[in-house]
Amino acid sequence: MSALQAVKRFRIRELGATALPSPALAKTKSHPSSASSSRHKVPVASIENPFIPTLNSKTGRWAPPKYSLRQQALLVKKARESGTLALLPPGPKISVVEIAAAAASGQAIVPGPLASVKSHIQNAAAPWTRPIEWTGEVKEKKVLGAEVGNRLYAGKKRMFKGHKWQRTAEKREKRRALLMRSMPKRIKEFKQYYKRRRPHPLKPPRTAKNAKLPF
């Protein structure tokens, strides 16, 4: 399935019974007197945004999005390839700003690079390309570093955590330098301690006078 066909199927599926007639058919059915006034008016369908959770007013519970994050990412990818990014609703994988920028640049009904001029005209007049008002509030998370394209290490004090021995190396070096500074004195005290306890190491150790056997 081509990228344009995937976006087209998504739009037709979401429009469903609320699919709008083509502009040519609407023009023929309208009254001649009101044709000039409604020439620039385009009917808008109001549909719930399938990319965000919906609240059930009766039960008060939230229903998950109709499309998973993986499906949303795939649709956004195909819409970028076909130049139909403005036809998708906003969601976690595509922001309102991106859709507005795509619509301003005229990407709403631009066909793929291999499409002919005839198919472009047909797509522009097709009912599935009609504007839709997606209902529901999209809460966009502010991701640090997203504006510069580096979200991995944005807002962190250091780039890499490193191994534990690398993180504790400075502290160990300070303690080692402190101990080495008084090392001769500590060695002398260590030797004197055992000299006091056993002046003659080759002789049998002295035992207490009242020593008792354990049995």
Automatic annotation (TrEMBL):
Region annotation Disordered: where it falls in the sequence: 23-42, 195-215
GO CC annotations, alphabetized: mitochondrial large ribosomal subunit
GO molecular function, one term: structural constituent of ribosome
Domain Large ribosomal subunit protein mL59: 5-192
Protein name: Large ribosomal subunit protein mL59 domain-containing protein
